[in-house]
Design a protein that fits this description.
The complex is a heterodimer of chains A (288) and B (121).
Chain A (H helix, E strand, L loop, with lengths): L4 H15 L5 H4 L2 H11 L5 H8 L5 H11 L10 H18 L5 E7 L5 H12 L8 E8 L2 H9 L1 E2 L1 H4 L5 H7 E4 L2 E4 L1 H4 L2 E5 L12 E6 L8 H14 E9 L12 E3 L6 E4 L6 H4 L8
Parallel strand pairs in A: 1-2, 1-7, 2-6, 7-8
Antiparallel strand pairs in A: 3-5, 4-5, 8-10, 9-10
Helix pairs in contact in A: 1-4, 1-5, 3-5
Chain B lengths: L2 E5 L3 H13 L3 E5 L2 H10 L4 E4 L8 H10 L7 E6 L4 H10 L3 E4 L4 H10 L4
Helix pairs in contact in B: 2-3
Classes of the chains: A alpha/beta (288), B alpha/beta (121).
């Protein structure tokens, strides 16, 4: 589908204004495909016609739908399993050790899309339930898209999605087969609080998270917004808190508040900053 | 090189699965039903078996039960790959000794993750 330069500029401007994401040249090729359902639903003949509607003042709902369609919501359960192994074997045991007095664990899944990452985290903690007995656990899962958050809150996944990333035992132990799809068990969903939130916006609950996962999200941002996002993430993290990016992502040169951890590529810890000296210590990893 | 035996009565499925598995680095062999699959296993136990459920002569579940009774039959990782997509069939497959279960249709990434989960990829 042909997309004129002017239509591409309108869409690109809309996406960046709403989400901070850029419609870079390597994403342009899929605009037509991404918007085809929206064009059909609204009786629009072309992307150019859509762009004309989007510059009208009363285009709110259409603009929301266009932004939703342009976002890449690709996700699956336990995406990059080796990263979940790092969480299980290194990160969570250290958090459990450091926070054993407060016995409160807070995790933020940023850009959660339809919720598979948050459910994977809840499942991982459930599989370690002996270690977390008596702990209060909260997983906050956010995305800039209302549409995917509504889907995530239902916790129902079609067959194709439920088997992407889950072992067969995880699937039959944590999901119930229903006519409308595979329903995640309530005990998992109860641990997750879904919210619509843009990672570039500040949170009210600063210094609240022991662990933040922001994987395959910031690669769609320009340098300036990426640096701003890292600042927001660092604001949200506890002193010494952990940040996990996607395997190919890096905070190098964009934040001096996040220090790479050698346990995995894309793993960071919040470095020293203003606050009590005790809070600011990033403990050395224990041997063994 | 790891070996995979595809046991499926559909030539199309065998061809598509072979393509996926070869691109993952497996040496692939094929059988058109459970009995033929057991004969292949008698010759050489594969590392992985991709197994259909409904087949003539001997079904996938009959094949799996017979395989697990074989003295060397505990070794191969068995991944059911079938249109029997209800939880009853899935539980029966796990009870009979299946290591993983893929519901058709599936894509290469799903299959690859399943093979990683069983330690075969």
């Amino acid at each position: 589908m042909q997309v004129s330069d002017s239509a591409a500029r309108v869409l690109s401007g809309l996406l960046e204004a709403r989400t901070g994401q850029q419609l870079t040249a390597d994403r342009m090729w899929r605009i037509g495909t991404a918007l085809s359902g929206l064009l059909r639903d609204h009786g629009l003949a072309s992307v150019d016609e859509l762009a004309l509607r989007l510059i009208e003042p009363d285009c709110g709902n259409l603009a929301n739908a266009a932004v939703d369609a342009l976002l890449n919501n690709e996700t699956y359960f336990f995406r990059d399993r080796n990263m979940f192994d790092v969480l299980a074997q290194t990160v969570l045991p250290e958090i459990a050790s450091q926070a054993r007095r407060k016995r409160h664990l807070r995790i933020w899944s940023v850009g959660c899309s339809t919720g598979q990452e948050a459910i994977s985290l809840a499942m991982l903690l459930s599989e370690q339930r002996g270690k977390w007995a008596g702990w209060s656990i909260e997983i906050v899962a956010s995305d800039v898209s209302h549409h995917v958050i509504e889907t995530a809150r239902k916790g129902i996944y079609p067959q194709f999605q439920v088997q992407r990333g889950l072992s067969v035992l995880q699937m039959i132990n944590h999901f119930e087969e229903r006519p409308e799809g595979w329903q995640a068990e309530k005990a998992l969903l109860r641990q997750i609080r879904y919210e619509v939130h843009n990672v570039l916006d500040p949170r009210e609950d600063a210094r609240a998270f022991d662990l933040v996962l922001c994987r395959n999200v910031l690669l769609y941002f320009g340098q300036e917004n990426r640096a701003r996002a890292f600042d927001r993430l660092a604001d949200a993290m506890n002193p010494g808190g952990w940040l996990m990016l996607g395997g190919g992502e890096s905070a190098a040169g964009l934040s001096d508040r996040l220090v790479a951890d050698d346990a995995a590529t894309g793993l960071y810890r919040k470095s020293d900053e203003a606050g009590s000296a005790r809070d600011n210590v990033v403990p050395a990893r224990r041997a063994g | 090189m790891k070996t995979c035996l595809i046991v499926d009565d559909s030539r199309v499925i065998r061809k598509v699965s072979r393509h996926m598995l070869e691109s993952m680095g497996f040496a692939v062999d094929e059988a058109g039903d459970g009995q033929e699959g057991l004969a292949r296993c008698e010759q050489a136990m594969p590392d992985v078996i991709l197994l259909d459920w409904n087949m003539p002569v001997m079904s996938g579940i009959e094949f799996l039960e017979a395989l697990r009774r074989h003295p060397a039959g505990a070794a191969p990782k068995v991944v059911f790959c079938t249109t029997e997509n209800d939880v009853g069939h899935i539980r029966a497959a796990v009870a009979a000794g299946a290591d993983e279960y893929v519901m058709k249709p599936f894509d290469q990434e799903t299959l690859q993750i399943k093979l990683q989960i069983v330690g075969a990829a």
